[in-house]
Design a protein that fits this description.
309 residues, alpha/beta, seven-stranded mixed sheet, 9 helices, 19% helix, globular, binds zinc ion
């Protein structure tokens, strides 16, 4: 399985258009020891012919254009993108679907609750089903394996199992609507199995870590894990108010109950932080937080990465 990182930042990207934090300011000034990043987007393929997107970022159009493997190959309308797996209904993860509205057939895999939010509550997504052979929706259930299929319906060689990571729906979903939805379908982690036996865990948003999640991660060869915030009060300190990382559904990296400590015992997988917010001090490669993460054996995903599993 080939894994392409098209984007590695959290919502807003790095720099973020309306942010003048130390990181964003210094990146714009050309004095930052680190890299700019577009919003989190990963693409996977087992054969380099059919590609699957893990979520669809608001930066998707530019990310596809920047990636040769995702360009059309045949004359006329064509795309090697066979499908999209959605791990939540967050705007960061679904907005790119609107950039795929040009009457191209592909599959969307999501939970029934996420499908209802998109198809029943937000009429703009009807643009994905204007003609009969456009987007094909496949409802998925937690802890049931399924193959990612090509547009023609053939097994791509990638198997997938999703599992629940959280119960909170995005802020745009009303409280009344949430009552109709299944809480466990709000936020997923995904385990992707390649035909070579390699196992890739993708989870750009993780509210908390428990023993069952640790066991799943120990069964993976490669883990892409929530790297949104360094500390729980990071946004409050930068903005002078707002929510904590945990209130926003992201376990912070640092601290006694942060992900660095919680996942320190993992032995098998290669560990990569993804979905990194522009305020996160570990983006500064000259700083102590970057050194701490690297010393602990973690990597920080960068746009343009290609990994084979
Ligand atoms: Zn910033």
């Amino acid at each position: 399985m080939r894994i392409r990182v098209l984007g590695s930042a959290a919502g807003g990207g790095f720099p973020q258009w309306n942010c003048n934090c130390r990181n964003c300011r210094s990146l714009r000034a050309g004095t930052f020891s680190g890299k700019s990043r577009s919003q989190a987007q990963v693409a996977i393929s087992n054969d380099d012919r059919t590609w699957f997107l893990l979520n669809t970022s608001p930066d998707l159009r530019a990310q596809i254009e920047a990636t040769l493997a995702l360009h059309p190959r045949n004359v006329g309308r064509d795309s090697p993108i066979g499908g999209v797996l959605l791990t939540s209904g967050d705007v960061d993860q679904i907005a790119g679907l609107l950039s795929l509205r040009e009457l191209q057939p592909f599959r969307v895999y999501c939970t029934p609750s996420i499908r209802r939010i998109l198809q029943e509550d937000n009429s703009v997504f009807r643009m994905l089903n204007r003609v009969s052979d456009q987007v094909s929706w496949t409802e998925i259930a937690c802890d049931e394996s399924f193959p990612l299929l090509t547009v023609a319906g053939n097994d791509s060689g990638i198997g997938c199992t999703v599992f629940s990571l959280g119960t909170h729906y995005p802020a745009y979903v009303s409280r009344e609507r949430t009552v109709d939805l299944k809480a466990e379908e709000a936020l997923l982690g995904a385990m992707l199995d390649s035909s070579s036996g390699g196992r890739f865990a993708y989870m750009p948003a993780v509210p908390a870590v428990d023993d069952s999640l640790l066991q799943r991660l120990e069964d993976a060869d490669l883990v892409f894990f929530d790297g949104t915030f360094w500390s729980d009060d990071e946004l409050i300190r930068v903005q002078g108010g707002g929510s904590t990382a945990r209130e926003m559904g992201h376990i912070p990296i640092s601290g006694a109950e942060g992900s660095l400590c919680e996942l320190a015992g993992l032995r098998r997988p290669r560990k990569v932080f993804v979905h990194v917010n522009n305020t996160n001090p570990m983006l500064d490669e000259s700083g102590p937080e970057y050194r701490e993460v690297r010393t602990a054996g973690w990597e920080i995903a960068e746009d343009g990465w290609s990994l084979d599993l």
